[in-house]
From TrEMBL:
<keyword id="KW-0040">ANK repeat</keyword>
<keyword id="KW-0677">Repeat</keyword>
<dbReference type="Pfam" id="PF12796">
    <property type="entry name" value="Ank_2"/>
</dbReference>
<feature type="repeat" description="ANK">
    <location>
        <begin position="118"/>
        <end position="150"/>
    </location>
</feature>
<protein>
    <submittedName>
        <fullName>Ankyrin repeat protein</fullName>
    </submittedName>
</protein>
<dbReference type="InterPro" id="IPR036770">
    <property type="entry name" value="Ankyrin_rpt-contain_sf"/>
</dbReference>
<dbReference type="InterPro" id="IPR002110">
    <property type="entry name" value="Ankyrin_rpt"/>
</dbReference>
<feature type="repeat" description="ANK">
    <location>
        <begin position="84"/>
        <end position="116"/>
    </location>
</feature>
<feature type="repeat" description="ANK">
    <location>
        <begin position="22"/>
        <end position="50"/>
    </location>
</feature>
<feature type="repeat" description="ANK">
    <location>
        <begin position="51"/>
        <end position="83"/>
    </location>
</feature>
Amino acid sequence: MRVVGTSALGILLGISLAWAGPLHEAARDGNLEHAGKLVGQGANIAEPDAAGEPPLLIAALAGNKDIVALLLEKGADIQIRNKGGLTALHAAAYGGHLDVVELLVSKGASINDEKNFYQMSPLHAAAEEGHADVVAFLVSHKADIEAKERNGYTPLTQAGWRSHWDAADLLLKAGAVCQQADLVGDWLYGECTKRK
């Protein structure tokens, strides 16, 4: 039986319909011209919206690479966190935005960051959502394939529970180990081991 894992990650990365300032809205909507104007006028690039999301995470989750680049260029902290402790790299990985993931990693984002409520890495986020291209990129950049989130589950287990077998197969090829049935259940253990 599965204990609550990172499936609630989406809640922590949800873009709120509550208060959002103009920069948050530009980050979400991908309006680079407006975002540039607001930053030029002194908009606070670190201020979270009512849901606790800073503009950098909003842009990363929405896949707005140009705005992510702008905010970083203007001094946004690449490791800024939302209220759940997640970073822009978690958000981009969860959203499946490989171009944003590549940009963030090239600028020094921590690939194995687990300093968040769920103690999960960006690889967990990508695997759980089945973003095989992001999984492959993170693995090629030394993401820890055996990292365990707070309930002890690895990215392979997260991918398997959601039947994202393309992502799971990439992790298996990289050497990930199927977690034991007493932790993940007979079904997932069986599905995982038959793919080895």
